[in-house]
Design brief:
By secondary structure, this protein is mainly alpha-helical. It is 51% helix and 5% strand. The protein starts with a helix and ends with a strand.
């Protein structure tokens, strides 16, 4: 009997605690619904809207009027506008490549621009070089080489020396000069810098064939392979980014850009059998010699006949 009584009392206690818990939760819930107004809390932070035009996932602004090499870009056509937007988005959100190319530009653009001006062609064409190689001595799957991505046969046609020891496609000054001569030839042949750029990318024969078959003499109206149809848009968007860094929220201090390397020139009129020994005897760092003269492709430099070479060495 005593056990039964204790069990009843214990059961009543448990039930009492359960009823209390339910009632308390209900009251708390009602209190939350009635009084917890997030908008009215004084400590709640106000959302911050960035004042720059390139917040995460924001489409980059595209100017209404764009020129390239003095030629108007017809952004009123959807395929032109959307093509430019595509390349802008790719280049602006492909941060590593774009930032590295920007950093290199202050080292190499002065050399390229000087030659373009001397050859009397638009300095906007330096962005072809950016599009081709991102200002690096790269080799494409088709063996196009250097900043300007010359094929061997084309390079030799414009006087660049290529052999086992030397490849002047890696020579910035000489390859830029050759690119200028080639681009002027293409401009005279096709009538516009836009078509000259297209021919530089796909070859004169391929461009001529497409123009003839489609009876079109305007780059922006031609139906071309994907690479060439995007080629000029890439060049133009690099121009927009490089020349409007504040607009595109590129926050890189001037100290972050690579400076030109101070060099002096040395004329080589006799064969050097071993460049490593030459560097040691002349107190030149071999690594710097090879990096400042990437056109030298061997450990020796043969000088034949009356020919001579000029090498760059760090001051």
């Amino acid at each position: 009997m005593i056990r039964k009584t204790i069990a009843i009392i214990f059961g009543l206690i448990v039930c009492g605690f359960g009823i209390y818990a339910v009632c308390n939760n209900t009251q708390n819930g009602n209190h939350t619904v009635e009084t917890h107004n997030y908008a009215s809390l004084p400590d709640e932070p106000t959302p911050v809207v960035p004042d720059n035009p390139l917040c995460p996932l924001a489409p980059p602004p595209l100017p209404q009027q764009i020129e390239f090499c003095g030629e108007s870009v017809p952004t009123q056509f959807y395929w032109v506008k959307e093509g430019l937007e595509r390349e802008l988005i790719i280049h602006l959100y492909q941060h590593s490549r774009t930032l590295l190319t920007l950093k290199r530009s202050t080292r190499y653009f002065p050399v390229i621009e000087k030659i373009l001006e001397e050859e009397n062609i638009p300095t906007d064409l330096k962005y072809l070089c950016v599009t081709e190689s991102n200002l690096e001595n790269v080799v494409s799957p088709s063996k196009a080489t250097g900043f300007w991505q010359f094929m061997e046969s084309t390079a030799k046609n414009y006087g660049l020396e290529i052999n086992n020891q030397i490849d002047e496609r890696y020579h910035l000054e000489k390859s830029t000069r050759a690119a200028c001569i080639h681009l002027k030839k293409l401009k005279n042949q096709f009538g516009s810098w836009a078509l000259a750029a297209a021919a530089y990318n796909m070859g004169e024969g391929g461009l001529s064939k497409n123009m003839k078959e489609q009876e079109i003499d305007n780059y922006w109206d031609l139906y071309l392979n994907q690479e060439t149809s995007r080629y000029l848009s890439r060049c133009i968007t690099y121009k927009l980014i490089f020349e409007n860094q504040e607009l595109y929220n590129i926050q890189m201090p001037a100290t972050e850009f690579y400076k030109p390397i101070a060099c002096k020139e040395i004329a080589i009129t006799e064969t050097i059998d071993d460049l490593r020994i030459y560097c040691k005897e002349n107190k030149i760092l071999y690594r710097q010699l090879r990096e400042l003269n990437p056109w030298i492709r061997d450990t020796k430099l043969t000088v034949a006949g009356n020919r001579s070479y000029t090498i760059q060495v760090a001051k």
